[in-house]
Amino acid sequence: MDRLDNTVRPYAWGSTTAIPQLLGVEPTGEPQAEMWMGAHPGAPSRTPRGTLVEVIEAGPERELGELAVAKFGPRLPFLLKILAAGAPLSLQVHPDLAQAKEGYEDEERRGIPVDAPHRNYKDANHKPELVCALTEFDGLCGFRDPDQAAGLLDGLGVDSLKPYVDLLHAHPQDAALREVLTAVLTADRAEMARTVAEATAACTRLGGAYAPYADIAHHYPGDPGVIAAMLLHHVRLQPGEALFLGAGIPHAYLNGLAVEIMANSDNVLRCGLTPKHVDVPELLRIVRFQPSDPGVLRPEASPDGEEVYETPIDEFRLSRYVLPEGGARHDLTRPTPQILLCTAGAVRAGEHELRAGQSVFVPAGETAEVTGSGTLFRATVVA
C-alpha cells in the first residue's frame, strides 16, 4: 500500500480556497481546480516506488491483478479527482467508446498533433464520469424538455430569442433540440453577443430559476454557451449526492467541491463557456438530443457499511464509508486495484494515517484494513 503524492492542477476556473481548506493548508492566491489521483500520464500520482505509471508498468498483474489486466489491459482504467469549481467549467460532452476510437483514428490518420488546440480526441477511450458532492455543488446536466426550455427562454422577453422559442415547440423533440443548439452555436457572433447581453440583464433582473445563468454570463459575457446552457437542467447536489454523466450528455460544473471519478481519458467536445476550440459539426455528431432527467444518485448502503454509487460502467466503481468514532475495523481487501481517499476526519488504512485530502494506492489483493473516524472514498473497478 503506497501513500500518494498528488498534483493539483491550476486551471483558471478553480477555487482559490476550497482545496487548501480541505487539505488544511494556506491558500496560495492562485486557482486550485483539480487534484489528480491515479496513473494518467498528464499528472501521475507519485509514490515511494516512483510514479504510479512506473509502478504499474513494472508489474501490471502484481499491481492491478489478473482480472483487471484481462479486462482493461495493463493500465489503471480510472482517474480519481478532487474537483473545486470557483467558476463554471466549459459546457461539454464526451464520446462513447466507438465514437472515441473512430475520432482518434481519423485525427491520427490526418496527422493532427495530439497537443494541437483544434484536436478533439487525445486518446481512443470513452470518458464516462461520476461526480459526488462534498459541499453544495451546482451543475448543468442533460436537456430539459423542449417545451420547458422554450418557457424559460420566452420568460426573458428578449425578441431575438423568439425564433429559438418557436423551434423548441416543434416536433420531434430531438430535431427541435438539435436545430436550436446548431442555430445558437453557428449564429453571427456579434449578433449573438447582443442577444446574450440582453438575456443576461433579464436573468439578473428576474433571479430565481434564472440566477444560475446570470452567474454563468458574468463569467462568460457574450458567449453563445450562455443560451445553450438554458437548454439544460440546473442541478444543486447536497453533500453525498452524485451525478453520473454518460456519453453524449451535455453538462457543466458550476460551483462547489466534489470527488470525481472517470474512465482514464481526455476526450472532450465543447459546446461553449470556453475560449477553447468548439468543433460544431463533430459536437453535433456526439450529442444525444433527448430530454433526460439528471438522475441524482444517492449511495446504496450494504450491511458492512459500504455505500456504493451504482453506475453502468465497469472502468470504475466509487463507494464511501462514513466511519463513526470507535467503530468497527473494515477489511477492504479486493482482487482489483484501489485508491482510498479520506475527505474528513482521520482514517487509518494499513500503516498509513490519512487526513482530509490524503490518499493511498492499494495493489490488487493487498490487505487493506481500515479504522478510524471520518469519511473514506474507495475507488476501484468492476472485474
Structure notes:
The chain is α+β, with helices and mostly antiparallel strands and 383 residues long. 28% of the residues lie in helices and 29% in strands. The protein contains twelve helices and 21 strands. The chain has helices spanning 18-23, 52-58, 60-64, 66-72, 97-109, 146-154, 162-168, 173-186, 189-206, 211-219, 225-229, 280-286, and strands at 2-3, 7-9, 34-38, 46-47, 50-51, 78-85, 91-93, 129-133, 137-143, 232-237, 242-245, 251-263, 269-272, 300-301, 307-309, 317-323, 330-331, 338-349, 352-355, 359-362, 369-380. Strands 1, 14, 15, 16, 17, 18, 19, 20 and 21 form a nine-stranded antiparallel β-sheet that branches. Strands 2, 3, 6, 8, 9, 10, 11 and 12 form an eight-stranded antiparallel β-sheet that branches. Strand 15 (307-309) and strand 16 form a beta hairpin. Helix 6 (146-154) runs antiparallel to helix 7 (162-168) and helix 9 (189-206) crosses helix 10 (211-219). The protein is globular and about 65 Å long.
